[in-house]
């Protein structure tokens, strides 16, 4: 219910912000300020978005936990969208989300209940007790043989219909 009330009241708060700022600095400076925040939002989204994507890619390549950078990336995208939406309240919220310490604070609060699964690896914010898994796979003699398959086209080193194959 409080979310529904906030959604209904949000346009009125933005309109009130336009009126207050418009009276203080005038119509054209207000419109210019709105355009400026949209441009700043697009630039910050591009710069910080690429850096988060690079860190995310590095974390995944190194086998680390990508959860933090995933959440930071999501908040940066949300911040860019908020700056592109006309309005001073959304601009303030968007600019706040571009501040890394604030994003870290949000990440610490979210990570308590978050599990990230990436290419078969599971990263938990709360470590679980380790269970030993066997690292050796034993094969029976029936499961493995050293004898090559005589019917294989590669049994004698090449494909049967390969014209470049030495005879």
Alpha carbon gyration radius: 29 Å
What share of residues is helical? 55-70%
Q: Which strand order spans the largest sheet, edge to edge or round the barrel? A: 1-2
Instruction: State the shape.
Output: elongated
Let me know the largest β-sheet: 2 strands, antiparallel
What structural class is derived from the secondary structure elements? mainly alpha
Strand content: under 5%
End-to-end distance: 81 Å
User: Which regions have little confidence, pLDDT < 50, spanning 5+ residues?
Assistant: none
Number of helix segments? 5
Q: Which series of helices and strands comes N to C? A: HHHHHEE
Report the count of strand segments. Answer: 2
Average pLDDT, rounded to a whole number, is 79
Give the arrangement of secondary structure elements.
Elements: H1 2-25, H2 27-62, H3 67-84, H4 88-97, H5 100-111, E1 115-118, E2 121-124
Antiparallel strand pairs: 1-2
